[in-house]
Amino acid sequence: MTYQSKKSGKRTAAGSALVLSLALLLCNLACSRSSTSSAPLPKPTAYGTAIVESSGGKQAAAVGTPLAQPVVLQVNDEQGNALPGALVTLRGPNGVYLDPATGLTDSSGQFTSNVSLGVVPGRYQITASTATKAGKVVDLKVEEVALGYQEMLGSQLNDQYCARCHNQESSAERVSNYDNLETKPHPFTEGDTLNKMTDADLTAIISHGGPALNKSPLMPPYGYTLSKSEMQAVIAYIRMISDPPYGAPGIVYAQQ
Amino acid sequence: MRLPDSLEKLRQKFFGNTVRAFGWTSLFLLILLAIAPAKNHFAEWRRYQRGYEKLISKRSDAVTLSRHFEPGIQQIWLPEMNVVDRCESCHSALKEPTLMDVTAQPYRPHPPIPHKLEQFGCSVCHRGQGAATSVEEAHMSTLAWEEPLLPAKYLESSCGQCHQQDLKGTPQLNLGRKMLAQYGCVHCHTIKRPDGSVITGVDDPPSLAHVADKTTREWVYAWLKDPQAYSTSATMPNFKLKDEDARDISAFLISSSTSAGVKVVQASLDQAKKVKDDAALQTKAASLYGESFCASCHAVQNAAGNLVGGNVGPELTKVGTKVRPEWLQAWVRNPHDYDPPTGMPHYRFTDQEVGLLTGFLMGKSDSDLLANVHLDTATQEQIDHGKRLVNDYGCASCHEINGIKHPDNFAPELTRIGSKPVSQLAFAAGVPHTLYDYINAKIRQPRAFGSGLKMPQYTFSTAQVDALENALLSHNERSLTMPAAKTVAALPASHYEPAGAAGKLIKDLNCFSCHAINGRGGDMAPDLTWEGSSVQREWLVQFFRNPNTLRPALIRRMPKFNLTDAEINTLTDYIMAVYQSPKIDRDAMPMSGYSAGEVELGKQLYYSKFACQGCHIIDTKQDKGYVGPTLTHVGSRLSAAWVYNWMKDPQALRPGTQEPKRNMSDDDARALTAFLMSQKGREAQEAKKR
After folding, report:
1. How confident is the model at residue B689 (pLDDT cuts 50, 70, 90)?
2. ipTM above 0.95, yes or no
3. Rounded to whole angstroms, how far apart are CA atoms A188 and A194?
4. pLDDT higher than 60, residue B618
């Protein structure tokens, strides 16, 4: 009996050693796997003091799809000059896909990443960070908007019917009328004004024109052109891209 | 030997007598019986339903929400589509718009879409295993379910199962479908729509039957090696040919080429030579290029490397390195001589002008492109090898090549690609085992699946690949078996051909490249289907003589075709007689003779009630509307009946036009028509003052 137990004891010792070595091996394998799947961080050759956005912020795209333009970030030194060779790391909320998520700034001091947004319509904040010489981390937040089906439809209707007056940006194909109008239309990002208007106000002004709310008579009525659901889509789009963000009034939550 | 003894003791203890044995057996059976209800009680979906009840109990509208909530397994059953969905069992808030602020799954409400969930269920659009009641099985991450949940970026493909037409809300799908026809995918791959029609290409790859007339073997070689090196916007994909393969294919293509017999006019060639050295002629040529609006269709790279111009014709940045001057002058003179079905219009240029443009375009060259290309005279062996390669790579699927037949079914048919079983796919290394990842990898890097594969390398952006994939995934088994009541068929392709002498002119001028008529043609310029109802004949004549744009800010414009008076008459007569809207009776409204009172009333309506000056210009000093066309001489351009009907319902005449419908009364519309018809242009106004 004692002999047996001794033997079994030995056996367990041998077993646990085996398990341990197996575990170590597995761990090693897993570690080596993870290191091959995500490339090792490049070594920065320079350290900046600030990170700024060059372009690519405030873009809107359909949920789950890549943004049309990449996000371009620049790392600056104390004098504000672009710094090549600095390490930039991007982080985003769940569902955001960054390609690449980390890397060194190029010869012009910039880091470019293609961004795909998550599947929930709304705003997505991407955080870009770079380390300074002192070991501190400086951050920059870049905001992007993911449009759901309704907002996407609204954005197309906006392009077709609204943008020529409500958007200052002009292109060769679509010239903006914004600068020609004496009473300036509100750009749809102008949250300070538009957030104060209820959905009913906006519906009234879209369907009956500016005079419905004592606004410019140059805003024509679209009530016989757009359907109700199309107007809702436009409003959903306006609410989504508003700056500052729009919070729906009227609903009180017991817990938030 | 001791173990059976202890077992014996146990047996004695529990089954010693009949009553005890019966008791224990009953207990055992009872436990067995309890497993089923227990399993049900601890089912995953119940946990989520309890979570939902907890979530809504804390909200201000808890009473309404709990009244809407039905516990138990919820199911949508659509027998005609063979669909059973139990997704609502866990996604309890799907139809609760007041919970829009909840983003955590499974309690996120469904975002607004134009369909009711009961009509289509969930798995028709999202795929996944609808009947399952556990997370893993439904979303399919573990079992070998053929249709795992579709990632959001491919969701539009589901819309394409029923909607064979372009849809407003699905830009990705629309783009993908367009790409299938535009990038020549359907030249090699057959794709049938559910109604049996086949998608046809619209890219019109050039015929190579007379390629030696047009260019040199060296250029063909360089092009075959890397089409994008010649022009970044080239649609031709890269076949990743070895040097000797490109050498042999170019040898075969040049040797198989026959002469198209293009007309060489020495005067134009001499003029073209002069342009090279003469700065004044160069300026003249550049302005002729500008006036002819070549840039509406052809792009050129500017100093910053950006493409400027349209994408209807090929990019011209390095065209001087590509084409022979003899060919180019013949092409500019009349493209139909070389390639009858071309989309390029026949401008009526004089020999001088042909020379100017030829010289100007020959100057657009890049000496680096062919600097390293040195080809010896081809041997017969090389030519034969080239011919074999041309057959192997299916070049004749796209291009017309002498001596090579168009191969049928060159590449796999893709009609059912969207429901191809994963088990039948051979994945390349590193590609996740799902159908959509497979298609994605196939488009991105076709040669990663094996070195002997023929599919060429395209240069698509991520968004383009996603769009193409959306279109491909929509071609699946369900789209083919969808009940007719739920499908929206594709618009039949229009093969409209205008008749007679005017028809010949329309073909010669290639009006369809930019304008649509009766459903056929491009969307770059206004639809002309009802042009005859819209405009006045005299204006049209003047417009053909000297097309000045109605919207001065646009880059793309109608070119001046240098038509003769007889040609203009033929065209205008045809347009005025044939392109009539059945909705408009041209005689219903008089063209003139409106009372001064009516005109004045119309003016007031124009400037105050309807505030048209926000978008249109009549008074060039005050009005600042750049959105719509200038109306200074609308009275001598449009017909009164068109203007009246436009006032009543612009969308009915041009669907999608930006001008809103105002629900105008007949009197208002009539007064506005009177006012607008009085706008005869500055000359007319000044004549009146005198």
Report:
1. very low
2. no
3. 7
4. yes
Tens of pLDDT, residue by residue over A151-209, are 999 999 999 999 989 988 887 777 788 888 888 899 998 988 888 888 999 999 999 99
Spatial contact of B307 and B299, defined as CB atoms under 8 Å apart: yes
Bridge partners (DSSP) of residue A122 are A146
Closest CA to A175 of A185, A160, A165: A165
**A84 vs B354: CA distance, rounded Å:** 51
Q: How many CB pairs under 8 A join A and B?
A: 113
CA distance, residue B15 to nearest chain A CA (Å): 32
Nearest-by-Cβ selection for A152 from B169, B656, B660: B169
Token code pair at residue A219: 């805003």
What percent of chain A clears pLDDT 70, i.e. is strictly above it?
81
For the full predicted model, state whether its pTM sits above 0.80: yes
Residue position matching structure tokens 């009766």: B518
A175 and B626 within 8 Å at the Cβ level: the answer is yes
Nearest to B395 by CA among B197, B177, B239, B173: B239
What is the spatial distance between Cα B673 and Cα B641, in angstroms, rounded to a whole number?
Answer: 8
Please give the torsion angle defined by the CA atoms of residues B626, B628, B630 and B635, in that order, rounded to the nearest 10 degrees.
-160
B617 touches B550 (CB < 8 A): no
- Report pLDDT digits (tens) over B125-156: 999 888 888 888 888 765 567 788 898 889 99
Spell out which residues of chain A touch residue B554, defining contact as CB-CB under 8 Å.
Answer: 172-173, 175
Tokens of B159: 């819309």
Q: Which residues of chain B are at the A interface, by a Cβ-Cβ cutoff of 8 Å?
A: 58-60, 98, 100-101, 103, 108, 111-114, 151-153, 155, 168-169, 171-172, 462-463, 466, 553-556, 608, 610-611, 613-615, 624-627, 651, 656, 658, 660-663
> What SS3 state is found at B324?
coil
What is the Cα Rg of chain B in Å? Answer: 35
Residues of B in contact with A165 (CB under 8 A): 614, 627
Structure tokens at B176: 């993908």
The first and second tokens of residue B398, run together, are 């796209």
pLDDT in tens, B228-252: 999 988 889 999 999 999 999 999 9
- Report the gap between the CA of A103 and the closest CA in chain B (Å): 20
Q: How far apart are alpha carbons A240 and A123 in whole angstroms? A: 8
